[in-house]
Amino acid sequence: MPDILERHDEAGIATLTLADPDTLNSLSDAMLAALAAALDDIAASDARAVILRAKGRAFCAGHNLREMQAMRQAPDGGAASFADLFDRCTGVMTRIRDLPQPVIAEVHALATAAGCQLVATCDMAIAADDARFGVNGVNIGLFCSTPMVALSRNVPRKRAMEMLTTGGFLSAAEAVEAGLVNRAVPADRLAAETRELAETVAAKLAAAVRIGKGAFYAQLERPLDEAYALTRDAMVANLAEPDTDEGMAAFLEKRPPRWTQ
């Protein structure tokens, strides 16, 4: 069986490619395990940015429905297996959020249900202008409750509810307008645009980006006073980095910084 997740590292950028086109890159048991292992490995690596892309007719079609139907054969109707599946999927999504490196989704085609959740979970996303996005589980009687968590933290409440209750899709342009993706580009420019964004991120001081990404998510759901206290501490920690001292000195001296990281 061919590898369903490919990894390529170059110039500080780790690229993960979902490579199971026969299942529309579904988040099968095998894919979730492969993603979890790859993200854990990247977290401990010297990569500075991550690109998540896919092969085939879809970016990701969400959970593998054939595997889910097979789970129903258990004496409990699959309840324990379903709970375990969603816990493992949540584990992958939280790994992306907690990863020190920013993760950029490169979305070339359809992203549905938990596949849309995957896009929403990534720190940034670039889409081909003919890509589409939906949380369409309601169309088969399964409300996308877990994908809703990431979706509702990206797009306005009423837009999210319309998507969830109608099973309708957003075009790439609508996804940009809603805040689900950063921008939509012609399909033949997608890889280059995503790579350019990743290279820009990778060129920054890794320690500053790591501290900043952690603070970004930590402060989002805090009251204002707690958010400011948390981000104050993050900036103090950032200022303690020797390379931050060098970066500020270089700016004042009008020269490029000589960073060690």
From TrEMBL:
Source species: Jannaschia ovalis
Pfam families from the UniProt entry: ECH_1 (PF00378)
UniProt keyword Ion transport present: no
Coiled coil (residue ranges): none
InterPro entries according to UniProt: ClpP/crotonase-like_dom_sf (IPR029045), Enoyl-CoA_hydra/iso (IPR001753), Enoyl-CoA_hydra_C (IPR014748), Mitochondrial_ECH-domain (IPR052377)
Keywords: Fatty acid metabolism, Lipid metabolism, Lyase, Transit peptide
Function recorded in the entry: May play a role in fatty acid biosynthesis and insulin sensitivity.
Family statement: Belongs to the enoyl-CoA hydratase/isomerase family.
Lineage: Bacteria, Pseudomonadati, Pseudomonadota, Alphaproteobacteria, Rhodobacterales
KW Lyase (keyword) present: yes
SUPFAM superfamilies per UniProt: ClpP/crotonase (SSF52096)
Protein name: Enoyl-CoA hydratase domain-containing protein 3, mitochondrial
GO MF annotation list: enoyl-CoA hydratase activity
